[in-house]
Each structure stands twice: as structure tokens, then as C-alpha cells.
Amino acid sequence: MSGGDRPGHREAPPAPDRLPxxxxxxxxxxxxxxxxxxxxxxADVLAQAAAVGVDRVVQIGCELPSARETVRLVNAHPRVLxxxxxxxxxxxxxxxxxxxxxxxxxxxxxxxxxxVRVVGETGxxxxxTGPDGVAAQHESFRRHIDLAKRTGLALQIHDxxxxxDVLRILTEEGAPDRTVLHCFSGDMAMARxxxxxxxxxxxxxxxxxxxxxxxxxALSVVPLELLQVETDxxxxxxxxxxxxxxxxxxxxxxxxxxxxxxxxxxxxxCAALSENGERLYGPW
Length: 284
Ligand SMILES: [Zn+2]
What we know:
Elements: E1 23-28, H1 42-50, E2 54-61, H2 64-76, E3 80-84, H3 91-96, H4 100-110, E4 116-125, H5 134-151, E5 154-160, H6 163-173, E6 179-181, H7 188-197, E7 200-203, H8 213-219, E8 227-229, H9 251-262, H10 266-281
Parallel strand pairs: 1-2, 2-3, 3-4, 4-5, 5-6, 6-7, 7-8
Helix pairs in contact: 2-4, 7-8
């Protein structure tokens, strides 16, 4: 949940051309409407996505209600695998009212489900949470890293304006084998550091925005085997549809933009993204 774009209920964008080979939406929030908009029907969302070559998704539940819903969704939909955690912007409130340990215990229980393959999104957010919440975020991040290592699940990280501390805490704790920076927002130097550490970087619709030159430069130094593509739906709708609700069926717009930056053929990128998804989270 990066929430940088403007709410508004524009017309649903038309479906993009189908991808030549299927890919995974690495991170989305199914069953979540924006603002007061009703949540779209999940079966429809998945069918619409599959029709354009997005045939598997990773559903992320990062508050207790959506984490519980995530387990229901992975049971109901073979195209869906899940991730659960307490979002960095949720952790301070849980620490403040003394409910963190109980909430974390429930996340750990939900993470034991066989189709939950991710601890995430956890991480740090210095954009939405002020200095008072930083210590709670750090503690929560460390606990989630430990959970991912104890369970052997992949770790998905939300990092907003906190690159240095994210890297420092991963060094101090020791990162899990499968570590993914969700909605990567770093520059070329950060990308190179993540490549050196073997972290996967998942790019969202933000890479298609006109003013995302630095992000495209960062993408250009990432090898295919460390890439993923995502929506973070319903947020971060790719150009030219900013302001409309995002959904997995719009992933092809981001894939094609990535292929252009990387100067690779779309089928080559799709094959790599699919293989990476299976390696990180599979089988579906
Ligand atoms: Zn998210």
C-alpha cells in the first residue's frame, strides 16, 4: 500500500493487449475498494487478469481483517497465493495500545496456512509514520524478518523513504533467502546494492510515470532473475490511467514499459518474471 496517487472514480481502463506468456502479479490487495468505492468481485478480477496473461497473483493482507480475508481467498481461488503481516503503518498503533504481541501471534497463525507463502508487507515507512512511530516500526520489522526465516516463507518489504534503515536492519538481522522489495522506489545505487545482496525488486505502475526517470534508471541495472512486476492494486495505476482504480489486468502495461527500459523482448521478460514468481512463491 503506497497510496501516492489521487483517489477518484474514473471509468475502468480498457484491457491492454494480452501478454505473449503468462506472468504473476507479485503484490495486490484483492477485495479492497478505494475510498468508499465497493470492492470489485474477486472472481471477476481474476478472470479479467487471466484473459490478458496475468494468471497468478500474490494477495497481500497487512492488517488483521485483510490477513484473515487473505486466508479465505487462497482457499477459494487456485490463482491466488497469499502474504500476511502487520503493515509498518499499523505497527505503531498496535504497540501503543498494547495489542502488538496478540496481533503478531495471529499473523503467525495465519502464516502457517499452506497457501500463504509470504510474510509481508512489512518494512518501514517514514512518509506516513512520524518519528514517534519509528521504534515500533523497527521492532515490528525485525519480528517479521525472524518469522519469515523461522517459517521459510518469502519476505515482502514496504520501504517508503527509509532505504538506509531497511538495508541496515536486513544486515543486522540477516535477510531471508527470498527477500523482495515491493513497489521498488530506490535509485540506481540502491538497486545495485540490492542486486549485490540477491534481493528481488518488484516494480509497480510507478515505473510508467513520466517523472520516474530515476526509477527507470534503477530498473536498467537489475538482472532479469531479480525482477518482479506488481500492481499494489487498487493503488498505483500505470500510465496512462493514473487516477483510475488499479487491478491485476493492467499489469501488461507495466511489463511492456519494463521491457522497453531493459531493451529486452516482451516474451523474454515474461518468461523470466514467471519463473521468478514460481521460484519465490510457487507452486500455485
Ligand atoms: Zn501493498
